[in-house]
Amino acid sequence: MKTTTRVAVIGGGVVGCSVLYHLTKLGWSDVMLIERSELTSGSTWHAAGGFHTLNGDTNMAALQGYTIKLYKELEEITGMSCGLHHVGGVTLAETQERFDMLKAERAKHRFMGLETEIVSPEEIKKIAPVTNVDGIIGGLYDPLDGHLDPSGTTHAYAKAARMGGATIETHCKVIETNQRPDGTWDVVTNKGTIHAEHVVNAGGLWAREVGAMAGVYFPLHPMEHQYIVTDEVPMIAEIIDAGGEHPHVMDPAGESYLRQEGRGLCIGFYEQPCKPWAVDGTPWDFGHELLPDDFDKIEDSIAFAYKRFPALEAAGVKSVIHGPFTFAPDGNPLVGPVPGMRNYWSACAVMAGFSQGGGVGLMLAQWMVEGECERDTFAMDCARFGDWITPGYTRPKVIENYQKRFSIAYPNEELPAARPFRTTPMYDIFDGMGAVWGAQYGMEVPNYFAEGDEPRYETPSFRRSNAFEATAREVKAVRENVGINEVHNFGKYLVKGTGARAWLDRIMAGRVPQPGRLSLTPMLSPKGRLIGDFTISCLSEDEFQLTASYGSQAYHMRWFLQNLDAGIHLESISDTRNGFQIAGPKAREVLQACTRSDISDMRFMDVRRLTVGMADCIVQRVSYTGDLGYEIYCDLPSQRALWDALWSAGQPHGMKPFGMRAMMSLRLDKFFGSWLREFSPDYTAAETGLDRFISFNKPVDFIGRAAAEAERDAGPARQLCAFEVAADDADVVAYEPIWLDGAVVGFCTSGGYSHHAEKSIALGFVPTEKAKEGLEAEIEILGKMYKARLITQPLFDADGARMRG
What we know:
The protein is of the alpha+beta class. 26% of the residues lie in helices and 28% in strands. The strands form 7 sheets. Strands 1, 2, 8, 9, 10, 11, 17 and 18 form an 8-stranded mixed β-sheet that branches. A hairpin with a 6-residue loop joins β17 (334-337) and β18 (344-348). This is FAD-dependent oxidoreductase. Keywords: Oxidoreductase. Belongs to the GcvT family.
């Protein structure tokens, strides 16, 4: 057995083998996979082997498309068969809401190059004759859907990796992982110790146990999952004898997926009375076993399936496959460098291994070899969960995700499991004021405030919801008087030290402000892609506060720590420094009433230390609402006293609380972008307009400078623009295609309704040469085309007089 390697991949399922292959594909040949038993000895061997592209996250869908197209390449490289059956598949819609979701997904696929299509019940009956289409409105057909041989595919990955120089050691159980002072790892096994520069946890069912060896908690949990293979079905036999093959059918109403298996059928269920498995840990001796049959928990699902697929009822059961699969709280994989660790990587919780395994392997290999991925991977980045997450939170969220595997995914839906968990000192006050809650990064956040007999629940919808009137009320309060909301939805960081300014100059592309001032700046990757959108507040020459997206804390802290200079004090203060934003034409009067300091000379982008009420605060004149506004920060124990002062002073001025729904409407008035919508690693500063904040004249080789300068000189091929949309009851959410002269030329990044201007607004990318005032285009929303006109004049305070005055 080798005793040294550049990368030790722990786990020999389809994901571990994919990672190993992609590392060799990108040029790292000194790589090794360690498997406690044989390859596939976990969830892989008993997987149903289906694959599909449908995913609510666009980048995940694209990676699933990559995975599916990769299988033919693997067969060509290795000469081995993956047992591919590209039979196509149709997802059924039994309600208008489900049909809306499928039409929205079809629209996304247009600019992704995926050839899906909306089909009628009559077409479904022709495509998938085993289906009873009674009550079906329509469906989404994907020709890429299919299934394969799980074992053959995994071994093809393994052979391709070996051909690239990789080593695979089976029957080699990892016992310990110990990090050396230089950041490398000793991987202790029953066959001896392997010294590795990098460790990849692809442990699958054992990922929790492997992580614990390094002191890392991975938020995932195995769930029991059951599917049934039938004896011969006459209708299927006829199709086969005629030289055909029946396609896949996904029936979300019945929580089932169905495909041909031999001359019979295979059907699996995501049943409501589901069961978590191995709650206190996966046994090391588990492997090629199955769980006992449990027909009781799928009894209702089977009854529904008999109605949807009548041929099943007469078919005998040939075999029952009941085994565990791992899920993360949101159902997406956990991939990437583990925050707070050196040279430790995650490739686990890949529930749909044969749809996602190739994309996971590619992204992780790019991350390791090239330093960053070719696309935004936040949806599967293990940094999307912070160190606040616990097994007690993970388990109910995983159960919820399993139960909603085939549920409609609404853009405004707030899932209730494991909530409330994390709250601020304002929770009970806001709850008493009618807050309708959302959650971000585990923290409760008011979405809006219900009044009177308005329900305390926002109806999930692809169209304008019952939050519409409440949001309009809050927007009106901000624009006409003054609104208040909490700033706990900002990630906050403290940077101190004599070298703090120099470090910020290197890690941020923009100007680092002087004491008493703040600046806005993008943070770039080495390839010039956006990895942060920050406000820098200079509290003194050697002390700075940074603010950015609350949900990206672990992501940003990981990058900071990877690039930290010696002697710099860096600290996340996201949950220890909180406060409020006040915004609107009366905001200055409210703040002045709460402090003895004169703020009349406080300019836009100024930051000061002030006593507000009884609380010592950091106050900065800036607002994401685009209005006259202030962000007021204090330590957590002072927050209630700060609230009392601001709320009391605000009442004579008509102060109202406002939530995130109003905030997202208000920012549209100024065309302000939002992190992971307009600004993400998929885009560059020049494409999004953030290049106006890059300080190209500072004498510093900041990260991403060369790439940003090259794009500045060449010009971006696409440009982020704003559109006024002639929508009716549904607004842009994200990734709707933008049409020009009958062709898709761009896509939307986000949108919504401007309650101030009473217009539907969309933000999105079009080719730079087309990005001109008055461009007439069309935007496809829920399968319907709407006229859209490109606008460049902000809908509110176009000259900035109120915001800056």
